[in-house]
Specification:
The protein is mostly helical. The chain has 21 helices and 2 strands. Helix 9 runs antiparallel to helix 10 (210-230) and helix 18 (407-439) runs antiparallel to helix 19 (447-468).
Length: 538
């Protein structure tokens, strides 16, 4: 199977089937999709789905990075930038170095080759931890740090990986030259990404059409990623920077109609792309195992064990010692309390590797100066083993760790406080609307119309005030009544349409309005409850 359309169809079909089975089995879909992909790769009559590394890195990854940047809290990113930087740059470099030294000492690999493997397995996945813990109430700081780290660490690892491959090809390596180039690549990536974010956001302001705006939004990550990547820069940083710029500046620039459609559009894009990535990861199991030479199996268990141990141990040590101690000293000097140890324990434990590591491993050249790239097949199988061990082993235990550390209790308490503040903000907004109505003159507006408008705003305010008093049963009744009224309207409209009393166009317009009213009612109900809100993507 090599036709792009057939490959795309097969991936989406496998993702859908796997997601349905995961829901039936009550397993995290990310983990199940990888296991499902592994099982599918061993089926004898299933056509092989060849996956080019460039497809993952240049087609699937850019929109995920961009929308992750858009959905990232810019204020949270700035607040936790110190920890994010230490993890995304410092911890990735330390992990790569530790793995390189380990395989050099135990397996006799050259240091340059060790750094190739180290750079590949160093970056934790940006998607898997949040996908696995979806539905668990995590403290906001933990989510911010993990999401922020995931935005940047891939760039660090891929830059290190390119340096290491070059060192293997040349047979030499200059640390000062690599460090200088790293800084230049990072600055160029951020600058280009910010420029693309600024330019596309300004362009969207003048469109006035949600479809055109969403088309530009979909192109934005590729405009940021492709040119810089082709020039040897960091497309990852560029896509992330573009998304962060839109996150910080898009609220007042994106029209409501575009934002409403964009929410569902991006949810679908992210859902299909993430699911496909997890399936792709699993599907590589058999091709990687089949490519391994017979003599390579001898030291493989030792290599896999020491690399997994090094990757997990370095992250724990880095977070619990090298990140926490300096941060605590800074906070103490400013008279602030130290952050809870349980936050760092969870962040240190959450080192799940994913598809970027696999794509980097698959992109290793086959030949160097006319000879096979050393240990390429072993690097591939070690990478896959690290992904599988961390994704399934650590991933399945994440919910248990969350509950054992009491993070779910802290997260629910934090979410309840945030919901109270949200509802109070909503009340303030409604009161501002009432004040605006009271200041509107009666010219051109009948007293009856004015009374209806004021009553509607007062009803909204009273509803929100009741939410602060936790009258949850009342809201369940309210939602049931609202939905029953909407359903009654639907039945009547269907009856009139069957009698040819309205046109198809009129029926569609009314159905759209009823759909929006249904969504509004459900969202208002969720937002009124302190533990059931759903964050809307910008």
């Amino acid at each position: 199977m090599s036709h792009p359309a057939l490959i795309t169809f097969a991936l989406i079909a496998l993702t859908a089937i796997g997601a349905i089975m995961a829901r039936r089995l009550r397993m995290p879909s990310s983990i199940f999709l990888v296991i499902f992909g592994i099982a599918a790769s061993f089926l004898p009559h299933l056509p092989r789905i060849p996956i080019e590394p460039d497809i993952v890195l240049q087609v699937l990854l850019p929109p995920l990075l961009y929308i992750a940047g858009v959905g990232m809290s810019w204020r949270g990113f700035k607040r936790e930038f110190g920890d994010i930087f230490l993890l995304a740059v410092g911890c990735v470099c330390a992990t790569a170095a530790a793995v390189a030294v380990t395989v050099h000492g135990l397996l006799g690999w050259p240091l340059a080759l060790g750094f190739v493997l180290g750079a590949i397995v160093a970056p934790p996945d940006a998607v898997a931890p949040i996908a696995i813990t979806d539905g668990l109430a995590l403290p906001g700081r933990i989510v911010t740090v993990l999401e922020g780290e995931g935005l940047v660490n891939d760039a660090t690892a891929l830059i290190l990986f390119s340096f290491a491959v070059t060192a293997v090809e040349r047979g030499s390596f200059s640390l000062p030259e690599a460090a200088g180039l790293f800084i230049v690549v990072a600055i160029a990536g951020v600058a280009w990404g910010l420029a693309v974010g600024w330019a596309t956001l300004r362009l969207r302001r003048h469109m006035g059409d949600p479809q055109i705006e969403l088309t530009i939004a979909l192109l934005t990550p590729y405009i940021a990623f492709w040119p810089l990547q082709a020039l040897g820069g960091s497309g990852v940083l560029a896509a992330v920077a573009a998304g962060l710029y839109v996150s910080a500046n898009g609220a007042g620039s994106i029209p409501p109609a575009t934002r409403l459609q964009g929410y569902f559009f991006w949810r679908f894009v992210v859902y299909v792309t993430e699911g496909s990535i997890f399936v792709i990861t699993g599907l590589q199991a058999w091709p990687i195992i089949a490519s391994l030479r017979q003599e390579s199996w001898q030291k493989l268990p030792l290599a896999i064990g020491v690399v997994i141990l090094a990757a997990v141990a370095v992250r724990l040590i880095w977070v619990l010692v090298l990140t926490r101690i300096p941060r605590d000293l800074v906070r103490k000097s400013r008279g602030r309390r130290a952050l809870p140890w349980k936050h760092d324990i969870f962040i240190g434990f959450t080192g799940i590797r994913g598809v970027v590591s696999l794509a980097a491993a698959l992109s290793i050249p086959f030949m160097v100066d006319g000879a096979p790239f050393p240990q390429r097949d072993v690097v591939l199988i070690i990478t896959f083993a690290v992904i599988l061990a961390t994704l399934v082993g650590q991933g399945l235990s994440l919910p248990f760790v969350v509950r054992k550390l009491g993070l779910d209790v802290e997260g629910r308490r934090e979410l309840a406080t945030a919901k109270d503040r949200e509802i109070r903000a909503r009340v303030a907004g409604v009161e501002a609307a009432l004040a605006q109505l009271n200041g509107v003159g009666s010219d051109g507006i009948s007293s009856g119309t004015m009374r209806v408008l004021k009553n509607r705003q007062r009803d909204r305010r009273d509803t929100l005030i009741s939410a602060l008093k936790r009258v949850d049963d009342q809201y369940e009744d309210w939602l049931k009544v609202q939905l029953s009224l909407i359903e009654a309207e639907r039945r009547k409209i269907a009856e009139l349409y069957d009698k040819d009393a309205i046109t198809d166009e009129a029926r569609r317009r009314i159905e759209r309005e009823l759909d929006l009213e249904d969504a509004r009612a459900r969202h208002a109900y969720d937002s009124s409850l302190p533990l059931r809100g759903d964050d809307l993507m910008p």
